[in-house]
Amino acid sequence: MTFLEKIKPHLLSDDILIQQTVLHALHEYPDVPEDWTVELLKEAFHHKEKQSDIFMYLENHSINEEGLTILINHLPSLDQENRRLALNLLNNIDIPLAFTYKEKLETYIPKQTWEIYEIIEHGTEEEVYSMYGEVLNKVNRSLSREYDYYPMAKKLSKSIVKNGWITEGEIDRVLSEEVNNEWFSDNGIMNVYMAGLLKLEKHIPLFASLLKSDDDLLMEEVSAALVRFQSDQVVKEVAPYVRDPESVIYAASILGNTKTELALQELRKAYREADELDVQESIIEALSFHFSNEALPEFNAHMEYEYEFSLVDIEQIAYSYYTMIGEKHPDLLEWKRVAMGKEKQFQLATGNSMPPTAPVINENKVGRNDPCPCGSGKKYKKCCGK
User: Fold this and answer.
1) Beta carbons of 41 and 71 less than 8 angstroms apart
2) What distance in Å separates the CA atoms of residue 169 and residue 227, rounded to the nearest whole number?
3) What is the dihedral of CA 335, 339, 341, 343, to 10 degrees?
4) DSSP characters for 293-313?
5) What is residue 369's predicted lDDT score, i.e. its pLDDT?
6) Per-residue b/e over 131-144, b at no fewer than 16 CB within 10 Å?
7) What is the per-residue pLDDT for 147?
8) What Å distances lie between residue 336 and 48, 86, 362, CA to CA?
């Protein structure tokens, strides 16, 4: 049974913990069917308490015409925070589709974006490259900036690749120069993105070696590029970094999102070899996203620990994993009770509603896979939780 086949029955689960786990598992997986995205958007507008999770975890997935129509029809009814998250999804629509619906989208898409879209859609190679340079000069990684040019840099990069306006040799040259610098430039990061789009396997060892970088933006693109391959070559190169506390979070996530048997076995092996709880937690979270009964020995061992604090939402991970693979455990209901209490506390802190039957636990903890309270739209573990 494939990864998608395993989680399809749970995509629209009424159990909020299960659905959140599905959304987490799909967030960085590159091959989510477009019709799933449509189903999830419909679900978001039928169940307000699910909106923030669904909007945030669809941020990497394309929105087709049906999905766009759903967004347009419901955007006016959203509160400020959920509207901000939903508007981020407009970056995921194809530019020709955006122009088709321009009259309805002009309220939501800034003038600067339409100007860039016009160049991408109708500009020459020289004009696109000129705009690419201008946008990179304006890219600012500060979260307080009113207009974020980074998604536009990626749109331009994607257009350059799609039109064949960059060669493997040019990407090779940029990356070889960047790796010798203390920090990757924005152009270097975009070349990582373009290499991933082209699935240039020659760069897999280089990308794996970057997993100890301190540049979060670079790490995001390196991780996305490596996951896009869905190959055992990636698994072999990344496996050593799963055992290192400095790189385990991204490395484990890559293997958790690479749905091959070797990735599963490398995670199991790394878990057994790890002697630090922080490392084991990142690995067990990645293992859960394979939804495989083969990982039961590692889960059974891990859940013997007594937790006062965990870097991952361990009760939710365990409850969802055992439930979704159809495995019984004597602590299953207790895990659900604790996980629902944490979820209730988070919802109360952020002003979102929860079903009134959820018990309350006096623990004000933001889950590592929850939206970061700073408002960046990123996962807490990849923002303020680092």
Assistant:
1) yes
2) 22
3) -170
4) GGGHHHHHHHTTSPPS--SS-
5) 47
6) bbeebbebbeeeee
7) 83
8) 21, 29, 15
SS3 state at 356: coil
Residue (of 246, 295, 247, 306) closest to 271 by Cα position: 295
Query: SS3 for 157?
Result: helix
- pLDDT in the model for residue 365: 41
Rounded to two decimals, the pTM is 0.88
> 227, 176, 225, 169: which is closest to 197 by C-alpha?
225
Low-confidence ranges of the chain (pLDDT < 70): 140-146, 307-309, 346-386
Which amino acid is residue 16, in one-letter code? I
Rounded Cα gap, residues 280 and 278, in angstroms: 5
Q: Where are the domains of the chain?
A: 3-165+247-382
Which residue from 214, 273, 275, 225 is spatially nearest to 247, judged by alpha carbons?
Answer: 214
- In SS3 terms, 191-227 reads as HHHHHHHCCCHHHHHHHHHHHHCCCHHHHHHHHHHHH
- Give the pLDDT confidence score for residue 345 in this predicted structure: 74
Q: Which of 33, 59, 54 is nearest to 42 (CA)?
A: 54
Q: Please give the C-alpha separations between residue 17 and each of 9, 13, 170, in angstroms, as whole numbers.
A: 14, 9, 46
At a CB cut-off of 8 Å and minimum separation 6, what does 19 contact? 10, 11, 12, 13, 50, 53
| Angle at CA of residue 379, ends 376 and 385, nearest 5° | 90
Instruction: Return the structure tokens found at 378.
Output: 């990123």
At residue 358, the pLDDT reads 38
Phi, psi of 299 (to 5 degrees): -65, -45
How far is C-alpha 226 from the chain's CA centre? 13
Cα radius of gyration (the chain): 21
321 DSSP assignment: H
Specify the amino acid at residue 223: S
Q: Which of 258, 229, 91 is nearest to 158 (CA)?
A: 91
